[in-house]
Design brief:
By secondary structure, the protein is α/β, with parallel strands linked by helices. The protein is built from 12 helices and 10 strands. Bound molecules: glyceraldehyde-3-phosphate and zinc ion. Its EC number is 4.1.2.13.
Length: 287
């Protein structure tokens, strides 16, 4: 069933595992993520960035796609459809359209404004049973053209943000979007612990999940991370499998150029990666 992310993340937090939130871009990725979740018997969050939703034809198309595929694929595991890094207007639109979860990302705004807008989004969302994620501090690297500074979240600000009534919190703890540089210092577990101590058991979100070593993922989960966002790694395996198919000239054999054949290896690679990450995050078998 299509559900808000609140309950699945609370269960994850209590059960010491995390739910993967995977970004989709099109039909193939959406099918791949749903297939992986069903095979792994894992709850899952399918998320669209503002850019990906625009590419796919709008939020309504994304929502209908997920809903219709869940029906035709006989999906039995809990699925949330979530707006990733949304501006205020986009979060409001998604709540209106029927998304079951939204991230309002005001992390680049002055903190007071971030807080005020968060309250408005929470009020609109909770009136419709939609879950809300907000961000404090900054995730380093680029997403949808917005470059984050990577500044660590201030625990006091995290506490204030949680008091707005949000359902889960994204806090900058040294995590970065995209691939991690050679000299990356790793996640700041001290800061994560300080934030967890003052935020009353709220599920925490780890952005930039691609490229974080398993031991750091596990430690982050043990300290309260319950949602892990993965985007770049899916793109990498999709591109690599597609490149291999073309370099082996399979597109030149038989009807190999048929888009259904051309896109299959990449799609299969996304299924495998998502299942593997569910295994890492401990959500396999939790549906
Ligand atoms: O919001 C999306 C994520 O934080 C994805 O980060 O592309 O580094 O996996 P990633
Ligand atoms: Zn992110």
């Amino acid at each position: 069933p299509l559900v808000s992310a609140t309950e699945m993340l609370q269960n994850a937090r209590k059960g010491h595992y995390a739910i993967g939130a995977f970004n989709t871009n099109n039909l193939e990725w959406t099918k791949a993520i749903l297939k992986a979740a069903e095979e792994a018997k894992s709850p899952v969050i399918i998320q669209t960035s503002m850019g990906a939703a625009k590419y796919m034809g709008g939020y309504k198309v994304c929502l209908n796609l997920v809903q219709n595929l869940m029906e035709s694929m006989n999906i039995t595991v809990p699925v949330a459809i979530h707006l990733d890094h949304g501006e205020y207007d986009h979060a409001m639109e998604c709540i209106e359209v029927g998304y079951t979860s939204v991230m309002y990302d005001g992390s680049h705004l002055p903190f007071d404004e971030n807080l005020e807008k968060a309250k408005e989004v929470v009020a609109a969302a909770h009136a419709k049973g939609v879950s809300v994620e907000c961000e404090v501090g900054s995730i380093g690297g680029e997403e949808d053209g917005i470059i984050g500074s990577g500044e660590l979240a201030d625990p006091e600000q995290c506490k204030q943000m949680v008091e707005t009534g949000i359902d889960f919190l994204a806090a900058g703890i040294g995590n970065i979007h995209g691939s991690y540089p050679e000299n990356w210092a790793g996640l700041s577990f001290d800061r994560l612990k300080e934030i967890a101590d003052v935020t009353d058991g709220i599920p925490m979100v780890l952005h930039g999940g691609s490229g974080i070593p398993l031991d750091q993922i596990q430690k982050a989960i043990s300290l309260g991370v319950s949602k892990i966002n993965v985007n770049t790694e899916c793109q990498e395996v999709f591109a690599a499998a597609t490149r291999k198919y073309i370099e082996e000239e399979k597109d030149l054999q038989g009807k190999g150029f048929d888009p259904r054949k051309l896109l299959a290896p990449g799609t299969d690679a996304v299924v495998e990666l998502v299942k593997q990450r569910m295994e890492w995050f401990g959500s396999t078998g939790k549906a």
